[in-house]
Design a protein that fits this description.
By secondary structure, the chain is mainly α. It has one domain. Helices cover 60% and strands 2% of the residues. The chain is built from seven helices and two strands; from the N terminus they run H-E-H-H-E-H-H-H-H. It binds NADP nicotinamide-adenine-dinucleotide phosphate. NADP nicotinamide-adenine-dinucleotide phosphate binds next to helix 5, helix 6 and helix 7.
């Protein structure tokens, strides 16, 4: 089925991708993905489990690999606008796949709880995401001439992306610093975060992630980027609601005015 780029494989995979995003969103009402300490797999009988750091690195590595491989197969790979997006992509995924996991502070004795099923789901998303965007940027998209740098969609998208990325990094930084660099075994594992956008919401790191993919979709103006925005929002909005509920249940003194992810709204 060729309805977007004219390439039947691309267009069919894009449809499948959107159906998959819908499925992930529906599934998130039943439970959130089993990674991270609060929501990780517990018990002995539930499949392969990894430590958080290793789980994150293995899951996110295709983000650093698929995109550049497909990118350099494209006709316009050495044009200025696609090269700019390549730089944005590599920065984003270097942070997600390498920097964030390396900086993560794991309490000694924390059992491995990062589900291998989550890694498989992450790989599917990253393969599709990398292929859709790299192929569109260097092969199918015809808007990426030098004029694109002054197009209002590019300028607005870049501002939204930079705001979201900055918010994500800053919020991750606050969360990380709630634990000491080498946490003592008896240190409380979780504390209430304060500062920055935590003043208004429980999960500003997720809000930042959603904003950055919104900005990426606007500045590249392609449906492949909308696919990953749908996946991210479908995963992180419900996860923020679970996290918010978890804080309220576990901390009596949790600030009552805080929302889960969107200030004053949700
Ligand atoms: N694009 C996507 O679809 C997507 C999906 C998921 C995540 N992400 C991004 O990946 C990053 C990490 O996500 P995540 O879900 O693992 O985030 P998270 O729950 O915020 O956890 C991040 C780190 O902070 C620790 N932590 C969290 N809350 C804490 C607290 N109250 N006190 C002390 N330490 C705390 C966690 O420890 P524990 O592991 O021990 O809980 C973990 O090491 C975020 O920037 C997120 O936006 C993106």
């Amino acid at each position: 089925m060729a309805w977007y780029t004219g390439n039947a494989l691309y267009d069919t995979l894009l449809l499948i991708g959107f159906a998959y995003a819908l499925l992930v969103f529906a599934a998130s009402f039943v439970g959130t993905a089993a990674y991270g300490g609060r929501f990780g797999l517990k018990g002995k009988k539930q499949g392969i489990k990894l430590g958080s750091r290793m789980g994150w690195i293995i899951m996110e590595l295709p983000g650093l690999m698929v995109f550049p491989v497909v990118y350099f197969m494209g006709t316009n790979a050495y044009e200025a606008v696609p090269l700019f997006f390549l730089a944005v992509w590599m920065m984003h995924y270097s942070n997600r796949a390498l920097i964030t996991p390396m900086l993560m502070r794991v309490q000694p004795g924390t059992p491995a709880s990062f589900s291998f099923n989550v890694i498989i789901a992450g790989w599917i998303t990253l393969f599709l995401h990398g292929y859709f965007n790299a192929a569109y940027l260097t092969e199918y998209g015809d808007q990426y001439t030098l004029d694109w740098f002054s197009d209002p969609r590019f300028v607005l998208g870049l501002i939204v992306y930079a705001t979201g990325f900055g918010l994500n990094i800053h919020s991750d930084h606050i969360l990380r610093n709630l634990r000491s660099k080498t946490p003592a075994p008896n240190e409380p594992r979780y504390k209430i975060p304060f500062g920055g956008v935590f003043r208004w919401v429980t999960c500003p790191q997720y809000l930042g992630e959603i904003l950055s993919f919104t900005g990426f979709a606007i500045m590249t103006w392609n449906l492949g980027a909308v696919f990953v925005l749908a996946m991210t929002a479908g995963n992180l909005i419900p996860r923020a609601l679970y996290t918010h509920r978890w804080f309220r249940k576990n901390f009596d003194e949790y600030p009552p005015e805080r929302k889960a992810i969107f200030p004053k709204l949700l």
